[in-house]
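Morning. Coffee machine broken again, so started the prediction first thing and wrote up yesterday's gels while waiting. Chain of 326 residues, entered below exactly as on the submission form.
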Amino acid sequence: MEAGRIDKIDKADDRETANRLSAIVANSLDTPAKTQDLARQAYQSRTQFHRLFRTVVEETPAAMRRRLLLERAAYQLGHSGVPVTEIALDANYGSLEAFTRAFRKAFRTSPSIYRRMRDPHFHLLAPNKIHFLALGSQTKGGEMDLFDRFAGNDSWHTRRLLEYAGALTEEQLDRPLPTVVELLPWRESNKTLRQLLENIIFTKEVWTAALSGADMDVNGPPPSQRTPQAMLQRLEKTDAELHRILCDVRNRSSWDDTFVDALCEPAETFTYGGVFAHIMTFNAHRRLMALEALRQLGVQTEGFGDPMEYEEAVAPWNQQVALKTP
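Came back before lunch.
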């Protein structure tokens, strides 16, 4: 294991201490170390170590270690074929069930679904901005480009909207909205929250099919697939494929290349960059309308749909602790 550097500590005098203490925790991920074991490495008592660590690193040693283990597990799920049970044991969980509960609480989805999503952002919220980072990865130090920001925010915010909607009744989901803003150059129904959310998911599904050359029913799915829970599963499925396709386009710098959309009648030609911008632009409009609809229905939501909220949540450019994966 290998520790990197720490760039953000409130007090300059504490930087060296924070760097040393966090490295002790970071280097313990492959051992069943307890807090007293870590304290001995710092030549301190358990109480002294806990108090000093919490002061300069802004997190307890145990909490930081659990979080880094979960972040490493998420990275392994998204970037390797290692069985989930093996990843669970590697993360210091005694059973797959215990790991699944902890992972779901942290990442709001199961390990198996997360693996299918291939989500590149595997960091949990941390006040000290210290995160797991696989050495030798192609993330260039964890920095995101504009594609990552737009695509990641759209997926992240849509998931949050669907989670909020999951607590509503059928009547609330289908209640006519008091205000409907129609700005789009084509006709689509946005008169209820359910319709707004469905249009967000369906837009991605249609373009994913067009980009991959797959067939799909342009009339949309049956009512059973339009519950918040079902839409969340559809989102995760289409996001995984859409992200795979567009990441390849990004990596080849082929945004200006064209493809033929055979789902159009007659078929039309579009650029990859134009389609990506189209999805992000109009889904942003729908997401903000859905957020306002949730508030009108009395749901206590957080944030305003701002991409900077997504940046703050994942903060992959502040990966101060670099760790080797097994």
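Confidence is low (pLDDT under 50) at residues 1-12, 135-142, 316-326. Going to sketch it on the whiteboard this afternoon.
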